[in-house]
Amino acid sequence: MITPVYRGENLRRLLGYLYGPGRCEDHHDPHLIAAWDQQILATMDPARVPGATLTDLARLLDAPVKAH
């Protein structure tokens, strides 16, 4: 089955969904697996770093898009 594609502009909301439990508790062990800068992985992953927030991560990931 091909699922529908949704386009949105709210990265913070998407991260909240992905880092949350999901609809049927299907999100197990959420974490970042790649980034353009290793420091992001080390300091910004809310699942791995105490004090890191989804809002800060969303702001960081949105920065190149907003700059463009």
Q: What's a concise summary of this model?
A:
This protein is mostly helical. 43% of the residues lie in helices and 0% in strands. 3% of the residues are buried.
Q: Main traits of this protein?
A:
mainly alpha; 3 helices; 43% helix
Give the tally of β-strands.
0
Average pLDDT taken over every residue: 82
Q: For the CA atoms, what is the radius of gyration?
A: 13 Å
SSE order: HHH
Tally of helical segments: 3
Give the fraction of residues assigned to helices: 40-55%
* Structural class designation: mainly alpha
Low-confidence stretches: none
Biggest sheet character: none
Q: In one word, what is the shape?
A: globular
Spatial gap, N to C terminus:
35 Å
Tell me the β content.
under 5%
Overview of the structural elements:
With 68 residues, the chain is mainly α. Helix content is 43%, strand content 0%. The chain has three helices and no strands. It has helices at 11-19, 38-43, 54-67. Helix 1 runs antiparallel to helix 3. It is globular, with a radius of gyration of 13 Å. The model has no long low-confidence stretch (mean pLDDT 82).
What topology does this entry show?
Elements: H1 11-19, H2 38-43, H3 54-67
Helix pairs in contact: 1-3
